[in-house]
Protein backbone atom coordinates (compact mmCIF):
# COMPACT_ATOMS: atom_id res chain seq x y z
CA UNK A 1 0.00 0.00 0.00
CA UNK A 2 1.34 3.46 -0.96
CA UNK A 3 0.80 6.13 1.68
CA UNK A 4 -0.26 9.71 0.94
CA UNK A 5 3.27 11.12 1.32
CA UNK A 6 4.66 8.59 -1.12
CA UNK A 7 1.88 9.34 -3.62
CA UNK A 8 2.62 13.06 -3.30
CA UNK A 9 6.32 12.43 -3.82
CA UNK A 10 5.61 10.33 -6.92
CA UNK A 11 3.33 13.03 -8.31
CA UNK A 12 6.01 15.65 -7.68
CA UNK A 13 8.59 13.53 -9.48
CA UNK A 14 6.34 13.09 -12.48
CA UNK A 15 5.90 16.87 -12.63
CA UNK A 16 9.66 17.38 -12.62
CA UNK A 17 11.17 18.19 -16.01
CA UNK A 18 14.76 18.56 -14.91
CA UNK A 19 16.60 17.30 -11.89
CA UNK A 20 20.29 17.33 -11.06
CA UNK A 21 21.81 15.24 -8.30
CA UNK A 22 25.13 16.19 -6.76
CA UNK A 23 26.14 18.04 -9.93
CA UNK A 24 29.77 19.12 -9.57
CA UNK A 25 32.30 20.85 -11.81
CA UNK A 26 35.87 21.18 -10.74
CA UNK A 27 38.51 23.35 -12.43
CA UNK A 28 41.79 22.14 -10.92
CA UNK A 29 41.37 22.55 -7.15
CA UNK A 30 38.42 24.92 -7.51
CA UNK A 31 34.86 23.62 -7.36
CA UNK A 32 32.92 26.02 -9.60
CA UNK A 33 29.76 23.98 -8.99
CA UNK A 34 29.58 21.95 -5.81
CA UNK A 35 27.08 19.12 -5.51
CA UNK A 36 24.09 21.01 -6.88
CA UNK A 37 20.73 19.23 -6.74
CA UNK A 38 18.18 21.38 -8.52
CA UNK A 39 14.58 20.70 -9.48
CA UNK A 40 12.69 22.33 -12.32
CA UNK A 41 8.99 21.57 -12.69
CA UNK A 42 7.23 21.27 -16.05
CA UNK A 43 5.97 24.66 -17.19
CA UNK A 44 8.02 26.60 -14.61
CA UNK A 45 9.99 29.76 -15.17
CA UNK A 46 12.89 28.90 -12.90
CA UNK A 47 14.93 31.89 -11.79
CA UNK A 48 18.49 30.77 -11.18
CA UNK A 49 19.94 33.50 -9.00
CA UNK A 50 23.53 34.03 -7.93
CA UNK A 51 26.15 36.74 -7.74
CA UNK A 52 28.89 37.02 -10.32
CA UNK A 53 31.07 33.94 -10.17
CA UNK A 54 28.50 31.92 -8.18
CA UNK A 55 28.54 29.09 -10.72
CA UNK A 56 25.41 29.82 -12.78
CA UNK A 57 26.97 29.66 -16.25
CA UNK A 58 28.97 26.55 -15.39
CA UNK A 59 25.84 24.83 -14.16
CA UNK A 60 23.75 25.86 -17.17
CA UNK A 61 26.48 24.75 -19.56
CA UNK A 62 26.40 21.27 -18.02
CA UNK A 63 22.61 21.15 -18.24
CA UNK A 64 22.76 22.22 -21.89
CA UNK A 65 25.39 19.61 -22.74
CA UNK A 66 28.10 22.20 -23.49
CA UNK A 67 30.32 21.09 -20.63
CA UNK A 68 30.85 17.75 -18.95
CA UNK A 69 30.22 17.40 -15.21
CA UNK A 70 33.12 16.26 -13.01
CA UNK A 71 30.57 14.21 -11.08
CA UNK A 72 26.85 14.02 -10.41
CA UNK A 73 23.86 13.34 -12.56
CA UNK A 74 21.48 15.29 -14.78
CA UNK A 75 18.02 13.97 -15.58
CA UNK A 76 15.89 15.74 -18.20
CA UNK A 77 12.47 14.51 -19.36
CA UNK A 78 13.24 11.32 -17.42
CA UNK A 79 16.46 10.62 -19.37
CA UNK A 80 19.91 10.48 -17.76
CA UNK A 81 23.45 9.30 -18.41
CA UNK A 82 24.11 8.30 -22.01
CA UNK A 83 20.37 8.42 -22.77
CA UNK A 84 20.46 12.22 -22.32
CA UNK A 85 21.74 12.45 -25.90
CA UNK A 86 18.30 11.33 -27.07
CA UNK A 87 16.68 14.47 -25.69
CA UNK A 88 19.39 17.06 -26.25
CA UNK A 89 17.48 18.50 -29.22
CA UNK A 90 14.57 19.26 -26.87
CA UNK A 91 16.78 21.70 -24.93
CA UNK A 92 17.37 25.14 -26.47
CA UNK A 93 19.98 27.38 -24.92
CA UNK A 94 21.36 30.89 -24.96
CA UNK A 95 24.53 30.87 -22.91
CA UNK A 96 26.59 34.05 -22.69
CA UNK A 97 26.31 36.33 -25.77
CA UNK A 98 24.37 35.01 -28.78
CA UNK A 99 26.70 34.12 -31.65
CA UNK A 100 25.29 36.34 -34.39
CA UNK A 101 26.57 37.13 -37.87
CA UNK A 102 26.71 40.93 -37.72
CA UNK A 103 26.54 41.47 -41.46
CA UNK A 104 23.36 39.45 -41.79
CA UNK A 105 19.74 40.20 -40.97
CA UNK A 106 17.77 38.50 -38.20
CA UNK A 107 16.04 36.35 -40.85
CA UNK A 108 19.36 35.27 -42.37
CA UNK A 109 20.83 34.39 -38.97
CA UNK A 110 17.82 32.22 -38.17
CA UNK A 111 17.89 30.70 -41.64
CA UNK A 112 21.45 29.41 -41.19
CA UNK A 113 20.46 27.51 -38.06
CA UNK A 114 17.27 26.21 -39.70
CA UNK A 115 19.40 24.78 -42.51
CA UNK A 116 21.64 23.06 -39.94
CA UNK A 117 18.56 21.54 -38.34
CA UNK A 118 17.09 20.57 -41.73
CA UNK A 119 14.00 22.74 -41.16
CA UNK A 120 12.35 23.92 -44.38
CA UNK A 121 8.81 24.62 -43.20
CA UNK A 122 7.28 27.70 -44.85
CA UNK A 123 6.69 30.58 -42.45
CA UNK A 124 8.82 28.98 -39.70
CA UNK A 125 11.31 31.83 -39.42
CA UNK A 126 8.61 34.50 -39.63
CA UNK A 127 6.83 32.78 -36.74
CA UNK A 128 9.97 32.84 -34.59
CA UNK A 129 10.62 36.50 -35.45
CA UNK A 130 7.09 37.27 -34.31
CA UNK A 131 7.47 35.28 -31.10
CA UNK A 132 10.54 37.27 -30.08
CA UNK A 133 9.08 40.58 -31.27
CA UNK A 134 11.46 41.11 -34.20
CA UNK A 135 8.96 40.78 -37.04
CA UNK A 136 9.45 44.39 -38.15
CA UNK A 137 13.26 44.59 -38.33
CA UNK A 138 13.34 43.93 -42.09
CA UNK A 139 16.76 44.21 -43.75
CA UNK A 140 18.55 45.74 -40.78
CA UNK A 141 21.88 44.01 -40.14
CA UNK A 142 22.24 42.57 -36.66
CA UNK A 143 25.40 44.58 -35.97
CA UNK A 144 23.08 47.61 -35.84
CA UNK A 145 20.70 45.96 -33.34
CA UNK A 146 20.37 47.14 -29.75
CA UNK A 147 21.57 44.75 -27.06
CA UNK A 148 17.96 43.85 -26.26
CA UNK A 149 17.23 43.02 -29.91
CA UNK A 150 20.36 40.86 -30.05
CA UNK A 151 19.29 39.00 -26.91
CA UNK A 152 15.82 38.42 -28.34
CA UNK A 153 17.32 37.14 -31.58
CA UNK A 154 19.52 34.87 -29.42
CA UNK A 155 16.34 33.54 -27.81
CA UNK A 156 14.87 33.12 -31.31
CA UNK A 157 17.90 31.02 -32.32
CA UNK A 158 17.45 28.88 -29.21
CA UNK A 159 13.82 28.29 -30.22
CA UNK A 160 14.71 26.60 -33.49
CA UNK A 161 13.79 22.92 -33.27
CA UNK A 162 10.87 23.54 -30.88
CA UNK A 163 12.64 22.84 -27.57
CA UNK A 164 10.54 21.95 -24.52
CA UNK A 165 13.16 23.40 -22.18
CA UNK A 166 14.81 26.75 -22.76
CA UNK A 167 17.99 27.63 -20.84
CA UNK A 168 18.85 31.32 -20.82
CA UNK A 169 22.00 32.60 -19.14
CA UNK A 170 21.67 36.22 -17.96
CA UNK A 171 19.59 37.36 -20.98
CA UNK A 172 18.68 40.55 -19.12
CA UNK A 173 22.22 41.52 -18.15
CA UNK A 174 23.22 44.97 -19.40
CA UNK A 175 19.82 45.82 -20.91
CA UNK A 176 18.05 49.14 -20.41
CA UNK A 177 14.61 49.09 -18.73
CA UNK A 178 12.81 48.84 -22.07
CA UNK A 179 15.05 45.98 -23.19
CA UNK A 180 14.44 44.20 -19.86
CA UNK A 181 10.67 44.57 -20.26
CA UNK A 182 10.81 43.23 -23.83
CA UNK A 183 12.86 40.17 -22.90
CA UNK A 184 10.58 39.52 -19.91
CA UNK A 185 7.50 39.74 -22.17
CA UNK A 186 9.06 37.33 -24.64
CA UNK A 187 9.81 34.81 -21.90
CA UNK A 188 6.32 35.00 -20.45
CA UNK A 189 4.78 34.59 -23.89
CA UNK A 190 6.89 31.50 -24.54
CA UNK A 191 5.77 29.93 -21.33
CA UNK A 192 2.10 30.75 -21.88
CA UNK A 193 1.75 30.19 -25.62
CA UNK A 194 4.19 27.33 -26.13
CA UNK A 195 3.95 25.82 -22.65
CA UNK A 196 7.71 25.91 -22.46
CA UNK A 197 9.73 25.34 -19.32
CA UNK A 198 12.34 28.06 -18.94
CA UNK A 199 15.43 28.26 -16.76
CA UNK A 200 16.77 31.80 -16.66
CA UNK A 201 19.75 33.03 -14.68
CA UNK A 202 20.39 36.45 -13.23
CA UNK A 203 22.51 38.08 -10.54
CA UNK A 204 19.58 40.32 -9.56
CA UNK A 205 16.65 38.60 -7.87
CA UNK A 206 14.42 41.64 -8.30
CA UNK A 207 14.76 41.46 -12.11
CA UNK A 208 13.20 38.02 -12.28
CA UNK A 209 10.64 38.53 -9.53
CA UNK A 210 7.98 39.65 -12.01
CA UNK A 211 8.15 36.47 -14.05
CA UNK A 212 9.78 33.55 -12.21
CA UNK A 213 7.48 30.94 -10.71
CA UNK A 214 10.30 29.16 -8.86
CA UNK A 215 13.77 30.09 -7.69
CA UNK A 216 17.10 28.43 -7.06
CA UNK A 217 19.71 30.50 -5.25
CA UNK A 218 23.33 29.56 -5.84
CA UNK A 219 26.34 30.92 -3.96
CA UNK A 220 30.01 29.87 -4.14
CA UNK A 221 29.01 26.89 -6.28
CA UNK A 222 26.40 25.56 -3.80
CA UNK A 223 22.64 25.70 -4.19
CA UNK A 224 21.55 27.45 -0.99
CA UNK A 225 17.83 27.32 -1.47
CA UNK A 226 15.03 26.39 -3.85
CA UNK A 227 11.66 28.00 -3.29
CA UNK A 228 8.45 28.86 -5.09
CA UNK A 229 7.35 32.41 -5.85
CA UNK A 230 4.75 32.11 -3.08
CA UNK A 231 7.38 31.03 -0.55
CA UNK A 232 9.66 33.89 -1.55
CA UNK A 233 6.87 36.46 -1.36
CA UNK A 234 5.86 35.06 2.00
CA UNK A 235 9.40 35.32 3.31
CA UNK A 236 9.62 38.93 2.18
CA UNK A 237 6.10 40.02 3.03
CA UNK A 238 5.13 42.20 5.95
CA UNK A 239 4.98 40.18 9.15
CA UNK A 240 5.13 40.15 12.92
CA UNK A 241 8.40 38.71 14.14
CA UNK A 242 8.10 37.15 17.54
CA UNK A 243 11.30 36.27 19.43
CA UNK A 244 10.95 33.74 22.24
CA UNK A 245 13.13 31.35 24.22
CA UNK A 246 10.94 28.46 23.05
CA UNK A 247 8.53 29.13 20.14
CA UNK A 248 6.73 25.81 20.72
CA UNK A 249 5.19 27.17 23.94
CA UNK A 250 3.56 30.06 22.08
CA UNK A 251 1.73 27.90 19.55
CA UNK A 252 -1.26 27.03 21.77
CA UNK A 253 -1.70 30.74 22.51
CA UNK A 254 -1.59 31.63 18.80
CA UNK A 255 -4.05 28.85 18.03
CA UNK A 256 -6.40 29.91 20.83
CA UNK A 257 -6.37 33.47 19.44
CA UNK A 258 -7.30 32.12 16.00
CA UNK A 259 -4.00 32.83 14.19
CA UNK A 260 -3.49 30.38 11.32
CA UNK A 261 -0.98 32.05 9.00
CA UNK A 262 2.26 31.75 10.93
CA UNK A 263 5.52 29.85 10.72
CA UNK A 264 8.17 28.82 13.26
CA UNK A 265 11.29 29.84 11.34
CA UNK A 266 14.01 28.69 13.77
CA UNK A 267 14.48 27.86 17.43
CA UNK A 268 13.84 31.44 18.53
CA UNK A 269 11.42 32.97 16.02
CA UNK A 270 7.85 32.81 14.84
CA UNK A 271 6.74 34.85 11.82
CA UNK A 272 3.06 35.79 11.72
CA UNK A 273 1.65 37.01 8.42
CA UNK A 274 -1.82 38.23 9.45
CA UNK A 275 -3.58 40.63 11.84
CA UNK A 276 -0.44 42.72 12.29
CA UNK A 277 -2.46 45.31 14.25
CA UNK A 278 -3.04 42.79 17.05
CA UNK A 279 0.57 42.64 18.23
CA UNK A 280 -0.21 44.28 21.60
CA UNK A 281 -3.06 41.81 22.31
CA UNK A 282 -0.80 38.91 21.38
CA UNK A 283 1.93 40.19 23.66
CA UNK A 284 -0.56 40.39 26.51
CA UNK A 285 -1.94 36.88 25.95
CA UNK A 286 1.56 35.43 25.90
CA UNK A 287 2.41 37.24 29.13
CA UNK A 288 -0.79 35.91 30.73
CA UNK A 289 0.24 32.38 29.74
CA UNK A 290 3.61 32.96 31.43
CA UNK A 291 5.57 32.97 28.17
CA UNK A 292 8.25 35.68 28.18
CA UNK A 293 8.49 37.57 24.89
CA UNK A 294 12.05 38.65 24.06
CA UNK A 295 11.00 40.72 21.08
CA UNK A 296 8.01 41.56 18.92
CA UNK A 297 8.35 43.69 15.80
CA UNK A 298 6.61 44.36 12.50
CA UNK A 299 8.98 43.96 9.63
CA UNK A 300 9.27 43.24 5.92
CA UNK A 301 12.19 42.60 3.65
CA UNK A 302 13.02 43.82 0.15
CA UNK A 303 13.60 40.97 -2.27
CA UNK A 304 17.13 42.10 -2.92
CA UNK A 305 17.89 42.36 0.82
CA UNK A 306 16.63 38.81 1.26
CA UNK A 307 19.00 37.61 -1.46
CA UNK A 308 21.95 39.63 -0.17
CA UNK A 309 21.44 38.41 3.40
CA UNK A 310 21.27 34.85 2.20
CA UNK A 311 24.49 35.19 0.24
CA UNK A 312 26.52 36.90 2.94
CA UNK A 313 25.55 40.58 3.00
CA UNK A 314 25.75 43.55 0.66
CA UNK A 315 29.49 44.11 1.12
CA UNK A 316 30.27 41.10 -1.09
CA UNK A 317 28.30 42.43 -4.06
N1 LIG B 1 36.89 27.47 -17.83
C1 LIG B 1 37.13 27.80 -16.55
N2 LIG B 1 38.33 27.56 -15.99
C2 LIG B 1 38.57 27.87 -14.70
N3 LIG B 1 37.69 28.44 -13.87
C3 LIG B 1 36.46 28.71 -14.38
C4 LIG B 1 36.11 28.41 -15.73
N4 LIG B 1 34.83 28.79 -15.95
C5 LIG B 1 34.39 29.31 -14.78
N5 LIG B 1 35.36 29.27 -13.85
C6 LIG B 1 35.25 29.72 -12.46
O1 LIG B 1 34.13 29.08 -11.88
C7 LIG B 1 33.42 29.95 -11.03
C8 LIG B 1 31.98 30.05 -11.48
O2 LIG B 1 31.94 30.74 -12.72
P1 LIG B 1 30.58 30.95 -13.53
O3 LIG B 1 30.93 31.66 -14.81
O4 LIG B 1 29.87 29.67 -13.64
O5 LIG B 1 29.78 31.91 -12.57
P2 LIG B 1 28.49 32.77 -12.86
O6 LIG B 1 27.62 32.60 -11.68
O7 LIG B 1 27.92 32.43 -14.18
O8 LIG B 1 29.05 34.23 -12.84
P3 LIG B 1 29.09 35.32 -14.01
O9 LIG B 1 27.72 35.89 -14.07
O10 LIG B 1 30.12 36.27 -13.52
O11 LIG B 1 29.50 34.58 -15.26
C9 LIG B 1 34.17 31.28 -11.07
O12 LIG B 1 35.03 31.32 -9.95
C10 LIG B 1 34.93 31.20 -12.36
O13 LIG B 1 36.11 31.97 -12.26
From TrEMBL:
Q: What is its EC number?
A: 3.6.3.-
Q: Which domain of life is it from?
A: Bacteria
Tell me one GO molecular function of this protein: ATP hydrolysis activity
Which UniProt keyword terms apply here?
ATP-binding, Hydrolase, Nucleotide-binding, Transport
Has UniProt tagged this entry with the keyword Nucleotide-binding? Answer: yes
**Keyword ATP-binding in annotation:** yes
Q: Where is the ABC transporter domain?
A: 18-245
Q: Which PROSITE patterns match?
A: ABC_TRANSPORTER_1, ABC_TRANSPORTER_2
Which family is it part of? Belongs to the ABC transporter superfamily.
Q: What is this protein called?
A: Putative ABC transporter ATP-binding protein YxlF
Amino acid sequence: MINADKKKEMKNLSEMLLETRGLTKRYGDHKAVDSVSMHIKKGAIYGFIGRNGAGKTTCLKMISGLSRPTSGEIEIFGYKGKDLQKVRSRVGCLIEAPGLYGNMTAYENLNIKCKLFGIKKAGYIEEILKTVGLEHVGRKKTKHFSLGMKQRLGIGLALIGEPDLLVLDEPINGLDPQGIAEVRDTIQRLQKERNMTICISSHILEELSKIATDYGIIHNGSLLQELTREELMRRCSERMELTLADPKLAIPVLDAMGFTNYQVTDKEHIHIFERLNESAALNMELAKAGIPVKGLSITSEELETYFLNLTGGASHA
